[in-house]
Automatic annotation (TrEMBL):
The keyword Iron-sulfur does not apply. It comes from Blepharisma stoltei. Keywords: Coiled coil, Metal-binding, Zinc, Zinc-finger. This is RING-type domain-containing protein. PANTHER family: RING-TYPE DOMAIN-CONTAINING PROTEIN (PTHR22791:SF6).
Length: 317
């Protein structure tokens, strides 16, 4: 081994320990390098025999190789910096890889969410379509029955549609009765009509507005037949009944949201709709707590929040 090779050796060739300040390298006369610890063990008096080539060196001529130690330390620092740099680059690469994996997972989750939302929207649309078809079918069937009931009531003279004149006798009764209300009455054995109680009147009027053929009053012993205009008691005794509306000529506009149940518009809305009807307008829009309401006075329907419902105009006398 030559001197140039030994200069760059970072460890002692005897003990194989890395050179340091405690194990300073020394260069022998032959050019080989060992540490000071091994020098102290190998010296023989004032002489030291090289363990590699057996050449002898004078102890007094051997000095520490400070230049080599500086080179070794610089090399160690450079190696440490390189290791730290590589470690940092590795950590950054791992962090980027983890971020990419997380982004990929998030994209997969978002895709699953989009698919689920699309599936739910499709199911909701199908359900709404089915419900609309069911409601339409039910409404068409109910409408036929409803207008048959209206026809029967018109024949009996108890209801007037769109300005048809009521029988003179009923107009006289309304005028003589006075007031501004609706009430129901039954005919006694003496031929005179007597009012039902306020509670019974409210129940009968509700059933009448819902276009029921019959209704039985709970906690009472009779039922009302709106087709035959009779009150039927439990002993099958029948009495004639009539509906008296003292709101002469006042139109009513109703909305059917649920099949078979007609609900009156509010008084201001009835006024606005009636004004549009009188002026022969095709439609009218106004705002309620449910949103914007658009009434089609040609098709007799109204739209509330993209849902269409039938409407009806009645004039009671």
């Amino acid at each position: 081994m030559d001197a140039n090779q030994s200069e760059f050796s970072p460890d002692c060739k005897i003990c194989f320990e890395v050179y340091s300040r405690d194990r300073m390298p020394i260069t022998l006369r032959c050019g080989h390098t060992i540490c000071v610890v091994c020098k102290d063990m190998l010296k023989q008096g004032s002489m030291l025999k090289c363990p590699i080539d057996k050449q002898k060196s004078d102890i007094s001529s051997i000095k520490p190789a400070y230049d080599m130690m500086t080179l070794i330390e610089d090399n160690a620092r450079a190696m440490q910096q390189m290791r730290e740099k590589l470690q940092k680059e590795m950590e950054e690469s791992m962090a980027k890889l983890r971020i990419q994996e997380e982004q990929k997972k998030l994209e997969e989750i978002e895709e699953i969410k989009r698919q689920e939302e699309a599936k739910l929207k499709a199911q909701l649309a199908e359900s709404q379509k089915t419900e609309r078809e069911k409601l339409k079918s039910h409404f068409e069937a109910y409408t036929d029955k409803h207008f048959k009931n209206l026809e029967a009531k018109m024949r009996s003279g108890k209801i007037v549609i769109d300005g048809w004149n009521p029988p003179p006798q009923q107009r006289r009764e309304n005028f003589e009765r006075g007031g501004n209300r609706i009430y129901w009455a039954w005919q006694g054995d003496d031929g005179k009509f007597r009012e039902f109680s306020a509670q019974h009147t409210a129940m009968i009027e509700s059933a009448y507005k819902s276009n029921f053929d019959k209704t039985r009053l709970t906690k009472s012993n009779f039922e009302v037949d709106f087709i035959r205009w009779k009150e039927i008691e439990n002993n099958w005794k029948e009495r004639s009944i009539k509906r008296v509306n003292t709101k002469v000529g006042q139109p009513q506009w109703s909305l059917m949201k649920n099949p078979g149940v007609w609900v009156l518009f509010d008084e201001p809305d009835i006024f606005n709709i009636e004004q549009a009807w009188v002026k022969n307008r095709k439609d009218i829009s106004f705002v309620t707590i449910e949103g914007t309401v658009t009434c089609d006075l040609v098709k007799f329907s109204c739209k509330i929040m993209d849902q269409e419902y039938p409407i009806m105009r009645e004039v009671f006398n």
